[in-house]
Amino acid sequence: MSSSSPVTINGHATPAFDIFSSLRYDPELPKLASQHPEHFPEPLNSPYYLLAHHRDRLINAARYFEWKKAFEEGPAWMKGDLNSLQEFLDSRIPDRHRPWRLKLVVHRSGHAWCEIAEAGPIDPLNFMVPGSGARSDPSPWRVFVDSKATFPSGFTAHKTTARDDYTDARLRSGITTPTQTDEVLIINNNGEVMEGSITTPYFRRRGGSSWVTPPLKCGGNAGTTRRYALAQGFCTEQVITVSDLVDGEECWLSNGVRGFIRAVVVLK
To answer: What is an example of a Pfam family matching this protein (predicted)?
Structure first.
């Protein structure tokens, strides 16, 4: 796919889009990583959650969409320089003593910018895979199943601003604000779970003690916390169909801003 070619999603023309990754700045992260170095990837001294994974996600998306200018004329971190990415983000943090939600955006021209919003406090242990230490979990989120299938494409495999399918799925499930502690599972045409609208889901399969997450072949996004959870051995990949889900079953959700979230499936 050429960056100058028309862009289509589900057979429909789509306006120009950007690629992005959402991550968290938290001053507690370096201390947590130093106390549990076996549970965190490098760099351990970074206040940015899974920083290298976010860089890699943006690079992989730019490669997929063949955004040549993003590499040739973009920032040094689009060529892999992690130090330059941290410096770029550091220059945009208004108060280093508080947590922040960052949306790191890259245009096909190579222009990059960062949108910042306040982030509420989270137990630092929630940034580690479940079972890594005692944690103070709030009430579980509710997880619904979308009533309409979504067609897998490069726009579901990579994080882009062309997110109408995700917005529509959330609205169909009654999720109208970002502060709701609710999530909806995105389903492909085969009735397989692809991912959540803003999270990666994990389910415990019947007859087993381990957790599983949908494989990328189902059409979902290669999320940063998903990569982290797989590397830590918290989960393996397994196709999950809607018929596999059980009303009231416990599950986990994760993303690069909130870490790992306890949840429960709601089918009725």
So the answer is: Aminotran_4
Check whether residue 16 and residue 108 sit in a common domain.
yes
User: How many structural domains comprise the chain?
Assistant: 2
Q: What single string gives the DSSP state of each residue in the chain?
A: --TTS--EETTEE-----EEEEEEE-TTHHHHHHH-GGGSPSPTT-SBTTHHHHHHHHHHHHHHTT-HHHHHTS-GGGGT-HHHHHHHHHTT-S-TTS-EEEEEEE-TTS-EEEEEEE-----GGGGSPTTSS-----SPEEEEEEEEE----HHHHS-BS--HHHHHHHHHTT--STTSSEEEEEE-TTSBEEEESSSEEEEEPTT-SSEEE--GGGS----HHHHHHHHTTSEEE---BGGG--TT-EEEEEETTTEEEEEEE---
pLDDT for position 205: 81
Nearest to 77 by CA among 92, 88, 93: 88
**Enclosing domain of residue 165:** 141-265
8 A C-beta contact, residue 86 and residue 51: yes
Mean pLDDT, the chain, whole residue set = 92
pLDDT tens per residue across span 176-219: 998 899 999 999 999 999 999 999 999 998 667 789 999 999 99
Q: pLDDT exceeding 70 applies to what percent of the chain?
A: 92
Residues 36 and 89 in one domain: yes
